[in-house]
Design a protein that fits this description.
Length: 207
């Protein structure tokens, strides 16, 4: 497909790989992204997702919400491996299709103009993480998000993927990239009616 492997980790039990394909599009002026494919193997399955790489900061986002994403179960029978490899190749081609990249870019572009509610956007997604790391990740993401000027979903996505970029543990890095990639595709935060006005729900955090 004319791409290159940008990142790979293999400890004999788990495999994490990311590739970047040719061609790029701008999310906004001077801020280009490139498409690609992310592959993970472990726990008797292979996961394949579209991948987006932001050139200006080297952040990567796994677009796990894309319809082309697949989980391929690894068979126990040796003679079934060829079938799995065929399905894997087909899925990689589907995730790396230029139209899939264009759709991902469209979602990211729309996130530039959407204000992010940190608590209502990030907290539900952090539930995917082990409890032991959830609180620390929330604090680190909040520090990056509120330490920057941008308060959009795009800014929040970049806060998460920047943390993923600086994370050395491969499984946590993958999970954070999935969370970051899921932010642009999230539905608008529901609002509660009060009288004739529509206001966002309030979230209180006690020390």
């Amino acid at each position: 497909m004319g791409g290159q492997i940008s990142d790979a980790y293999d400890d004999g039990e788990r495999l994490f790989g990311r590739s970047i394909l040719r061609g790029e599009r701008e999310v906004r002026r001077g801020d280009a992204v490139r498409g690609g494919v992310a592959v993970m193997m472990g726990d008797r399955e292979i996961r394949v997702h579209p991948y987006v790489f932001r050139k200006v900061c080297g952040n990567g986002a796994i677009m796990a919400q894309a319809v082309q994403t697949r989980r391929i179960e690894l068979p126990s029978e040796e003679d079934a491996h060829d079938d799995v490899m065929g399905e894997l190749r087909e899925t990689i081609r589907a995730c790396g299709d230029p139209d899939v990249f264009a759709q991902s870019v469209g979602e990211i572009r729309s996130s530039v103009d959407r204000e992010a509610d940190f608590a209502l956007t990030v907290l539900p997604m952090l539930d995917r993480l082990p409890e032991a790391v959830r609180v620390s990740m929330m604090g680190l993401i909040a520090g990056r998000f509120f330490g920057a000027a941008e308060r959009s979903r795009f800014g929040l996505m970049n806060a998460v993927t920047a943390l993923a970029r600086d994370t050395t543990e491969p499984d946590l890095k993958w999970r954070l990239e999935e969370i970051g990639g899921g932010i642009p595709a999230m539905k608008p935060v529901p609002r509660r009616p009060v009288g004739m006005a529509m206001v966002p729900p309030q979230v209180y955090v006690h020390a």
